[in-house]
Amino acid sequence: MIRAARRLGALLGAAAMLLALPGSAHADATAYAGTTAIGTHNAYDKSKYTYFAQALDSGASLLELDVYVDSLTKRWRVSHSNPLGNDNNCEHANTPSQLYSQSRDQDLGSCLDNIAAWNQLHPDHAPIVFKVEMKVGFNNNAGLGPDELDTLIASKLGSSVYKPSDLLGSTYSSLDAAAKANAWPARDSLKGKFLFELIPGTVEEANPFDHYWTDQEYGEHLRDLYAAGSISSAEAFPAVLGAANGDPRTSRYDASIRPWFVFFDGDAATYVNNGYDTSFYSTNHYILIMTDAASVSPAISSTAPTDAEVAARLSLLAGDHASLITSDWSTKSASVLSSVVTRG
C-alpha cells in the first residue's frame, strides 16, 4: 500500500517536478551518491545519435559503450554485435573543430578522442558515467587487459577522469570503506569529470568456457594495484551486474575483492516489481544503476515517453534508491535528460 501510494504521488507530481528542475541546485550540493540522474542505453548507436558528440550534448548523465577486444588486431572495437569491426557513431576526430563532421565507425580510442575534444568545448559539464560493457571480456594474454585499458583511458582523458584513487584519497583502504563513509565529492565539484563503469558482456556471460569475467578480473586488478601502491593507475570502477535482493557480492566474489565493488547494475523492474530492499545501496552510499527503467510497472514507452512520464519515473526510482536510471530515451531534450533529483 505504501509503495502504491508513493507511485501515485510520483505520477501526480511529475509535471511540477519538471518545472522545478532548473532549481535542482540543491542536488548539486549533495554528495554524488545522494543524487539520481538519467542515462542512455547504447549511446554509441548511430540510430540514436548521428555522432557520439551529440550523445555527450544530450545532457544524459550516463552513456553506454559496447566494447569487443579484437585479439587478432589488438584493437578495442566498439560495436553491438561485430567483434571484428566497428559499428558506431564515434568519429575520427580529436579536436573540437573536427567534431560532428568526420568518418564514423571508429575504435574505442577514437571514442575517447571525441570525449576529450568535446570536453574542451564544455569544461564545466555535469559528471558523466561511461558504462562500458566488455562484450567478450578482456584478453590479457593478447595485451588487451585491465592495465592496457587503464593506459588507453589515461592517455586520452588524463585528469578529467574521476578514478578509484580519488574516492580513496589518503584515508581509506578500500572503495567499500570510502563509500560507506560517503567520501564521494559533492556533485557540483565533479563538473568536467568522467567516470568509467565496467560490466561483463553478454557474449562473455554466455561462453561456457569463460568463468573469469570482467568484474572479477578488474576487481582483482584493483586489489593488486592497491597492494602494490599503484592504485592511482586504475581508471575504472567494476560493477556487480544483475539485480539481487541483499548484497550480491557475498555469493559472487571471494572476500579479497568484495571491498572493491561499489557500483551495482541491474534491471529496474527486477529490483522494484519484486519489492527488493534497495535501501542497502543508499545506506552505504553505493552507486546503483537501474536499467530498462521504462519497464517498471506501470510501464511507459522505452523510446518516446512524455516529459511528465520521464519525471515521474525518475522520481519513483530515486525513491527506490537508484543513482542512475537508463532507457532508450535519446529523443528527449537535454533539459529532460539532464534532470537530477535527490536520491531517496
Automatic annotation (TrEMBL):
What is one Gene Ontology biological process annotated in the Swiss-Prot or TrEMBL record?
lipid metabolic process
- Per UniProt, which keywords does this protein have? Signal
Q: Tell me which Pfam families the record gives.
A: PI-PLC-C1
GO molecular function of the protein, one example? phosphoric diester hydrolase activity
- Coiled-coil ranges per the record? none
Q: Which residues form the signal peptide?
A: 1-27
Name-wise, this protein is: Lipoprotein
